[in-house]
Amino acid sequence: MAQMSKSLDVGEATKKCSALRDSQKSSAMCHSGRWAVISRNLAQYTLVTLFVGWIVWPSLAYPAEIKCATVWPLDAERRDTHTQQDIEQAYLRRWPSGRRPILGRSCTTGVLIGTVVQGDDEKFARFYRDNHPFLERFLLISPGGNVAAALNIGRLFRKYLIEALAPFEEHDTRGNSIRMRPWGTNGQTVDWCSGQQQCTCASACALIWFGAVEREGQVGLHRPMTNDPAFKALPSAEASTAYRRILGIVTAYLEEMEVPTPMIDAMVSTGSSEIEWVDSETTGLRRPASIAEWEDASCGSFTSEERSAWSALAVKKNKSSQEQRFEKMLFEKLIKDGSCRSALLNSQRDRLAFP
To answer: Any idea what DSSP says for residue 139?
Structure first.
């Protein structure tokens, strides 16, 4: 049964590489944008007309794609190592309703690449609907975009218990910076940043990332920016009122997603032409507090100290026998923890109605 859990927990095989990368993540990129047309009555400058989002400069923008990165593996039901009873029991732990993934077709990991635009929240909802309840995580590679769409996607991430993986930065043997977002895709490791002009998750993309139940990578924060001449033409008092309303919507969302107050303050205090980078590990943002406590109550905890210790041992050469035993113990605990949380999230997702 232990072997069955390993083969059916899609993505578990990547946990070790993920933990190794976490200790080296960073990236840098900044972008800006423009707002939609403001209403004729500047005195009644509405939230709807202004609240379009953090859009990248038009010269850098390219349409976002939402597509599948990994499907349920064809060998998930190998009869040479597992009995049919083992397979059915493992499925039932994850999907009590009796739903079953279509091998080689049902998507487990999606990817969003490009600028978030109006309507992408509906596009995401359709994509998720086609893969419910088997979609577990999303790779996010976006410089930003439409805030309203990003907030809606982030809320769908939280409702359907989706994990989010943002890009990070590593260094080659010469010390050169390399931005990456590798992921095991149908038997091969693919760097989804390869060929992309911008390998980052910043601005509105960070809002989506904050909606996830588990977060990995590095995201960039700053407060919204507007280049619209009509906004510049507003009297200072009315401009302040309009801008505070936008900040209020964004900060309320971040509070809803249980983002620590220092992170919210960092966003508000970072100018729209600047960027503040935060990391899932160094800032303690890997899991929202309520999700972490709920998972730990069911599965026990794998602490950040244990994760750091295992990551250090995994890359260390010439380990002592004691260190090897300790590394093995931590790795087995990591796999057990990941297997339990995967089954927990999948079983809860299975109970939710289609979006």
So the answer is: E
Query: How do the domains of the chain map onto residue ranges?
Result: 25-288
Q: Encode 109-144: b = buried (16+ Cβ within 10 Å), e = exposed.
A: bbbbbbbbbeebbebbbebbeebbbbbbbbbbbbbb
* Separation of alpha carbons 192 and 194, rounded Å: 5
**314: its two tokens:** 């995994």
Select 25-288's CATH number: 3.40.1710.10, 3.90.226.10, 1.10.443.10, 2.70.50.60: 3.90.226.10
Distance CA 122, CA 234 (A): 33
CB hemisphere CA count around 51 (13 angstroms): 15
d(CA 236, CA 35) in angstroms, rounded, equals 18
Structure tokens at 104: 């080689």
CB 202 within 8 A of CB 150: no
In this predicted model, what pLDDT tens digit does every residue of 261-303 receive, in sequence order? 999 999 999 998 899 999 998 788 999 999 999 999 999 988 8
Which residues have CB under 8 Å from 10's CB, separation 6+? Answer: 70, 72, 73, 76, 108, 109, 136
According to DSSP, the residues that pair with 168 across neighbouring strands are: 180
Each residue of 87-111: pLDDT tens digit? 888 888 899 999 999 988 999 999 9
Report the alpha-carbon distance of residue 33 to residue 29 in Å, rounded. 14
Report the C-alpha gap between 212 and 252 in whole angstroms. Answer: 16
Q: Which amino acid is at 7?
A: S
Classify 136 as helix, strand or coil.
Answer: coil
Tell me if 215 sits within 8 A of 285, measured CB to CB: yes
Sign of CA dihedral 225, 229, 232, 238: negative
Phi, psi of 223 (to 5 degrees): -80, 160
CA angle 103, 107, 113 (to 5 degrees): 150
CB-neighbour burial class of residue 209 (10 A; exposed 0-12, middle 13-18, buried 19+): buried
